[in-house]
Amino acid sequence: MSFQHLYVHVPFCSRRCSYCDFSIAVRKQIPADDFVASISTELQQVGPVESLETVYFGGGTPSLLPPEAITTLLRCVFNHTPSPHAEVTLEANPENVTANAARAWRSAGVNRVSLGAQSFDDRVLEWMHRTHDAGQIARAVKHLRDAGVDNISLDLIFALPESLERDWDRDLDHVLALAPSHLSLYGLTVEPRTPLDRWISRGAIQAPTDDRYADEYLRAHERLGAAGYAFYEVSNAARDGRRSRHNSAYWSGRPYLGVGPAAHSFDGRARRWNHSAWEAYRSVIAAGESPIDSREDLTEEQRQLERIYLGLRTVEGVSSSAFSRPLPPLSTFVEQGWLLTDGSGLRCTPSGWLRLDSLVSALTGNLTIS
Ligand code: SF4
Predict the structure, then answer these.
(1) For the chain, how far is it from start to end, CA to CA, in angstroms?
(2) Taking the complete model, does pTM exceed 0.90, yes or no?
(3) Which protein residue has the closest C-alpha to ligand 1 atom 8?
(4) Nearest CA to ligand 1 atom 5
(5) What contacts 228, CB < 8 A, 6 or more positions away?
(6) How far is the CA of 236 from the centre of ligand 1 (A)?
(7) Are 126 and 134 a contacting pair, CB within 8 Å?
């Protein structure tokens, strides 16, 4: 089938962040040639991908690849010249954004960069095991703008443990001073087997609290909203309408193709995913085999639940007709300030987004999402 949205997973990182449980390969030397060859082979296995509207290099740390690798991959993906109408996003760590790299990415066809800023406090960045300092974030934004990439997103993490005394307002001040077109805000979660999980288990630090999560999330809505940013999804805000077209495709349930280790694909009815470890992925591709590890056909009930869940993540919400069972009375949720309804559909308020999972459970009669 033809896909309009392509995700390329680049698994390499130079160090594991303290909270991260992603499938990554920590490497001092990035095996760029092997990676490009593997992705090119997988794309040949899949067949031509035409009319791409979005391409997203995610990771891992895609900015660790040399710029020539990004150029080669984009030529391969677009059959030589990237479409000027496509949104081409590269996730980057601030320390990798030099003036030369930014120019090379732009010439390769990258027109959107998502920067993993996380915080503007060097003490906090060190605690997170990040490999950049605060000064590198502003320099990265400048290099990108100088190179002609003005569609810049910053990732920030909120709800850190109390004892770090992270000043969320100060970080929001820094963000607003840089005025990126897009922001992604993620609350810290404690994933099993991460350094953070071990620190908490041995009592070296307290787990983040729900109260702090709610306070900082709502504070971000207040301050960013006043500065012209509109939250269009539970974790994402844009100004001047510069939403992520790629991620919006996920949330609206459109099909997408994912290539690279651990990448997922969705054709509208079934999901499949690749071997997650880089070495396992590389060796099956080198043996001429399919990198697909597993697949799952979604039942009609699962697809319905997913439509509801994804719809309620977005500011558009979900139509009442998406529910096959009668909805419970909504007045309690509306009175609590969690849901807005106009009779034909419903959507979450910021307070509703804070309890999205339990709202979906309540609205769907406790169907569980896979
Ligand atoms: S850079 Fe991103 S993917 Fe890599 S370890 Fe840190 S959080 Fe995980």
Answers:
(1) 24
(2) yes
(3) 20
(4) 16
(5) 239, 240
(6) 19
(7) no
Residue 307 in contact with residue 318, Cβ under 8 Å?
A: yes
Sheet holding 270-274, edge to edge: 264-266, 270-274, 292-297
60 Cβ inside 6 Å of ligand 1: yes
Report long-range pairs for 124-133 (Cβ below 8 Å, ≥24 apart). Answer: 124/160, 124/164, 124/166, 127/18, 127/164, 128/17, 128/18, 128/19, 128/157, 129/15, 129/16, 129/17, 129/18, 129/195, 130/17, 130/93, 131/14, 131/15, 131/93, 131/95, 132/93, 132/94, 132/95
The protein residue with its alpha carbon nearest to ligand 1, atom 6, reads 17
Cβ of residue 10 lying under 6 Å from some atom of ligand 1: no
To test ligand 1's pocket by mutation, which of 9, 12, 13 has the most ligand atoms within 8 angstroms of CB?
13
Over its length of 370 residues, how does the chain's per-residue pLDDT go in tens digits? Answer: 678 999 999 999 999 999 999 989 999 999 999 999 999 999 999 987 778 999 999 999 999 999 999 999 999 998 878 888 999 999 999 999 999 999 999 999 999 999 999 999 999 999 999 999 999 999 999 999 999 999 999 999 999 999 999 999 999 999 999 999 999 999 999 999 999 999 999 999 999 999 999 999 999 999 999 999 999 999 999 999 999 999 999 999 999 999 999 999 999 999 999 999 999 999 999 999 999 999 999 999 999 999 999 999 999 999 988 888 888 888 889 999 999 998 789 999 999 999 999 999 999 885 544 4
